[in-house]
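Reopening this one. Same input as before:
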Amino acid sequence: MTKTELKDFLDAKVEEYNNPKFIESDPIQIPHQFSKKEDIEIAGFLSATIAWGNRKSIINNVNKMMNLLEQSPYDFVMNHQEADLQKLEHFVHRTFNGHDFATFIQGLQHIYKNHNGLEAVFSKHANTTGLQSAIHHFKSAFFEIQHLPRTQKHISDPLKNSAAKRINMYLRWMVRNDNTGVDFGLWKSISPSALSCPLDVHSGNVARKLDLLNRKQNDGKALKELDEALRRLDPSDPVKYDFALFGLGVFEGF
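Same output, byte for byte:
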């Protein structure tokens, strides 16, 4: 395919998958249950944090999380007592356990109380070329609280060559405004042009078949290569192509 043909093909796939029907089978449905900015941010962050494995299992377990937070995630984060965290200890999703969950609630409280909230801590270190440094600084701020070293693995660090798929997906949800009701566009202080594609096995395999990506590993270097290719197709909204790559991989077995 020529560049024009490739762009036309992917743009058509974006239109096919970037619509409200996508929400029905995706973890993004969880933050869509809320209307308050902070509830959406926190529900989205926790949903993205455990978004690996079977998607049905992910959605079931994030719903369990929201029930444990009494369907008021921001209020729970800000006003919980030590005793309230005890009921989280039996939660488990793959390697993310109840202790990790409790630590994340404490980390979120720290971010809202001492760093002016999730949007502020990301936007402080955002720049026009990308958000990888912002993710690194967010992780540092998040873990300023007392925590077990093992819990740190649940937030990836792009500056250590991670593709940071889940956190990049979360940033897409919060920053990108798609005008179709899927991504939220809540964070106006960060430009969608700086977003990175949530690179996983599906999007990576499709990107390689379309000659958008040569690198074999799905790591930070591969993400940089894919980002550059997608920004050439649409500099202002490159991660819209996540819908095309993911849809082609998951729903069409491309």
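So the earlier flakiness isn't reproducible anymore. For the record, The two ends are 15 Å apart (CA to CA).
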